[in-house]
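batch_manifest entry 22 of 60
target: Hemicentin-1
source organism: Panagrellus redivivus
requested by: lab member K.T.
priority: normal
notes from requester: please return tokens only, no post-processing; we will run our own comparison against the previous entry in this batch. if the run fails, retry once and flag.
--- input ---
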Amino acid sequence: MLGSILVLVVGVVGFALANPCPVCGPTVGTWSGWSEWGLCSQQYGAYSQQRTRTCSTGSSNCYGADSESIACVVQRDPVPSPPAVAPEWNSWGSWSGCSASCDGGFQYRQRTCNTQCGVCTCVGPVTDQQTCNLQPCCTWQDWSPWSECSVTCGSGGVRYRTRQCSCGNCGAGETSQQQSCSSPTTCPTTCNVCQNPPPPPPPPPTCNICNQPPPPCSACGYYGRRKRRQALTQRKIANGHVDMTA
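--- output ---
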């Protein structure tokens, strides 16, 4: 009896496996493979990438989501750098003051290099110089010899000497000098008397005989010659002569 029951059960199971019952209701579908990730785009303030898949039955009988997303970072194109500018010199600065006012000096000027990297690679000198104020300096010439002393005897005299400037302006300095001097000759004691002019001659007498010719010798002898001599003497006195021997 038991054996008959086991044979019956095994037979039923084998029949069921060989002839399965049809499933009632919709068929469960299968998903296709995922697509490639899409571009990184902004949605709701955040950047993300998406990919999708489709159900093989064309319906929603597949279990799971048909899309998924991941966060992403936008790879922005780098901002192009400005083209490099070849370094070049800026304009020269102003000339400095001359190092000398005359006889030649030097003055200087400078320039800077215009470069983006801050390192000067310009070709050429940074500093320039030139000569200036080449005119000769004004100088005093040698003093002239001293002049003669202003006195010929004794002391109390003055003598002078001069000098000239080699050009227009020699600055501080004097063009002439003077100093006291004396003569080696001693003045005579009557020097003041000697220097006085002689007194004027006395006025001629107002006698009438002075302007008359001498009388002729009317008589020979002592008395005639004496009268003639007196007349000639009076005429010489009137003319300024003092020789009484005439």
